[in-house]
Amino acid sequence: MEYLWAFLIGGLLCAIGQLFIDYTKLTPARILTAYVVSGVILSAVKLYKPIADFAGAGASVPLTGFGHLLAQGVEKSIDEKGFLGVFTGGLTSAAGGITVAIVAGLIIALLFKQKDK
Fold first, then answer.
1. Is 80 inside a domain boundary?
2. Which end of the chain, N or C, is less packed with Cβ atoms under 10 Å?
3. Separation between Cα atoms, residue 81 and residue 72, nearest integer Å
């Protein structure tokens, strides 16, 4: 059942994003930014954690999950370091994922030759 809920919730988040792309004049960059900000806001008002616990990867893998991860890191860092945690918490919590993205991009860039359009 966990896989089904992850698929349905993650699919719903992606379908909503696709509807925004198809039926609004918003650019994909603005939609992606809105997803991250939505994750932060929903996490701040304590609504995203129950969704993430219920849907698992279906809620933590999309960009709303990245926003939730940033908000969790800031909240934890504020508890530990005070006001300075506002500036360090998000990057500390997301450092692993950001590093993997950079290293994967570097490896792909080294393995494949760029083609002119």
1. yes
2. C
3. 14
DSSP H helices in the chain: 2-23, 28-44, 48-55, 57-60, 63-81, 85-111
Residue 106 within a domain? yes
pLDDT tens column, 41-55: 999 999 999 998 998
Q: What is the pTM of this model?
A: 0.77
Query: How confident is the model over 14-36, as a mean pLDDT?
Result: 93
pLDDT tens digits, 75-113: 888 888 888 888 888 888 888 888 998 999 999 999 998
Residue 94 lies in a domain: yes
Can you give the residue range of the structural domain that contains 11? 2-111
CA-CA distance, 25 to 37, in Å (whole number)?
A: 19
Tokens of 69: 């991860």
Q: Quick check: is 117 in a domain? A: no
The structure tokens listed for 81 are 């370091």
First to last CA, the chain: 45
- Taking the C-alpha atoms of residue 55 and residue 87, their distance in angstroms, rounded to an integer, is 29
